[in-house]
Specification:
It is built from nine helices and no strands. The protein has about 220 residues and is an all-alpha fold. The chain has one domain. The longest helix is centred in the middle third of the chain and has 33 residues.
């Protein structure tokens, strides 16, 4: 299997181009580079889409080892929160007065939309794989848990500033921080509120996305 075998949906391609162009125009017209980090966030959102696409292609061709599958699934799971995470970048809207807020709305919305879309396609790919191995009921439970943990990952990224690769480079500090949150629930009310909000939004988006694809 080659990378060119991966088919990127047209809506992702067009939105991706628009997001990149808007970010570049923002720099050229307003001489402001504050939002260039969003391009990096979009790239991170692209990773789970690519990983899931490779996994589903190799699974369909029965050309995948257990080690490769498990390793790919773990990497996908760790990077999945990056896709919907871009939605939280709206927190920066209106902070930079050198750029018209309407322009930044389009920059952020387009970037968040394409990132979320890649995440939804990614979830659909993984669901297809699980449906080949488990019943629909078990798969539904697994997908709910995956989305729940991804929502918690969004919280860790936005409010505790953790990244996906911290699991490898500073896992002790990551685990310690998570355990502290679990042991001191009363001091982290926002964790439950925002994780729940992220979960509801992503889950409803996922269900809605699947229903539109089947029509």
């Amino acid at each position: 299997m080659k990378i060119r075998d991966i088919k990127i949906p047209k809506q992702i391609t067009s939105l991706l181009i628009l997001a990149v162009v808007l970010n570049i125009l923002r720099v050229l017209f307003f001489s402001n580079t504050a939002f260039l980090y969003i391009l990096w966030n979009i790239f991170l959102a692209f990773i789970p889409f690519i990983i899931s696409s490779i996994l589903v292609l190799r699974t369909n061709k029965n050309n995948i080892s257990k080690i490769f599958f498990v390793a790919g699934l773990i990497l996908w799971f760790l990077f999945l929160p990056n896709a919907p995470y871009v939605i939280t970048d709206f927190i920066h809207l209106g902070r930079i007065h050198a750029v018209p807020i309407m322009f930044d709305i389009f920059v952020l919305f387009t970037s968040a939309w394409v990132s979320l879309l890649m995440g939804l396609y990614s979830l659909v790919n993984i669901e297809k794989i699980f449906l080949l191995r488990f019943t629909k009921k078990v798969t539904n439970i697994v997908m709910v848990l995956i989305i729940l943990f991804a929502s918690f990952g969004m919280y860790l990224g936005r409010y505790l500033r953790f990244n996906s690769w911290d699991f490898f480079v500073s896992h002790n500090y990551l685990i310690t921080s998570i355990m502290k949150i679990v042991k001191e629930p009363n001091s982290n009310e926002n964790m439950y509120a925002y994780t729940s909000l992220f979960f509801i939004f992503i889950y409803i988006s996922f269900i809605s996305f699947k229903s539109t694809k089947t029509k």
